[in-house]
Amino acid sequence: MIKSISEMSAFSAEAKAERRSIGFVPTMGYLHEGHASLLEQSKKQNDFCILSIFVNPLQFGPNEDFDRYPRDFERDEQVARNYGVDAVFYPDVKEMYPSEPSVTMRVNKRVDTLCGRTREGHFDGVATVLTKLFHIISPDRVYFGMKDAQQVAVVQGLISDLNFPVELVPCPTVREEDGLAKSSRNVYLSERERQEAPALYRTLREAAERLLERENITHIKEKMVEYLEKQTSGKVDYFEILSYPELEEAHETDREMIIALAVQFKNARLIDNITINPDGRKYR
């Protein structure tokens, strides 16, 4: 475990001096199989795998769940050992933000829809912490799950616009046997809600089939929202079909697109998506 920025930077610098490649998996901890799949991919493609665990306060709004975000470092550290992680970067808030910043990041595109529409400043916080982490760790590749597809799109823009010498590696969503996307927030579902939750993925798959059959996009969205409202007790926050990674309104199906949804249950807000290429391939 490494807790200081200076020690983490020194570790990375030594690896670079030895011409070792570094794969980086940034997380907020409470690791599950989805995170494990990122670690596996990083281990396959790099000489060193670095995992960061940092619950970033800049990503949470005033009414969001920073204090109750699940934390279990001992368990996370064991997962890291099991997957052969070479270093775990585990800084505290004072280490990452020792004083009020004089420079802040602002994301201008790909954030005014999906989760970004109701989480003002969230992706600014993501961009800020990743900029710091990229400078501290200097990875060759960084790994994100497509479950958070909007985040992947934002990170892609961050890397491109600021010319970070790092390759973004998107990895498919990891799911339970019934299709529910793995998430740290699934623990907040009641027994009834957990039984309802697989309807989210069923809805995405149905929408994908309709989209590939060239059904009208507006009609698809209306029908899928109706289905979700019947199949779950949650409130549908959004159901969108957009171009990807631009996250703009889509009218044609001859380009990569994303079908994305969010459903608010009593104590957990679940998101999921399917990304479709023109040839019909999906991230599942």
From TrEMBL:
Its main location: cytoplasm. Its EC number is 6.3.2.1. ATP binds at residues 28-35, 145-148, 174, 182-185. Gene3D superfamilies: HUPs, Pantoate-beta-alanine ligase, C-terminal domain. Signal peptide: none annotated. It is an enzyme of class 6 (ligase). It catalyses: (R)-pantoate + beta-alanine + ATP = (R)-pantothenate + AMP + diphosphate + H(+). SUPFAM superfamilies: Nucleotidylyl transferase. It is found in: Cytoplasm. Pathway: Cofactor biosynthesis; (R)-pantothenate biosynthesis; (R)-pantothenate from (R)-pantoate and beta-alanine: step 1/1. InterPro entries: Cyt_trans-like (IPR004821), Pantoate_ligase (IPR003721), Pantoate_ligase_C (IPR042176), Rossmann-like_a/b/a_fold (IPR014729). (R)-pantoate binds at Q59, Q151. Keywords: ATP-binding, Cytoplasm, Ligase, Nucleotide-binding, Pantothenate biosynthesis. The active site is at H35 (proton donor). Beta-alanine binds at Q59. GO terms for molecular function: ligase activity. Belongs to the pantothenate synthetase family. Homodimer. Catalyzes the condensation of pantoate with beta-alanine in an ATP-dependent reaction via a pantoyl-adenylate intermediate. HAMAP family: PanC. PANTHER family: CYTIDYLATE KINASE/PANTOATE-BETA-ALANINE LIGASE (PTHR21299), PANTOATE--BETA-ALANINE LIGASE (PTHR21299:SF1). The reaction proceeds by a bi uni uni bi ping pong mechanism. This is Pantothenate synthetase. The gene is panC.
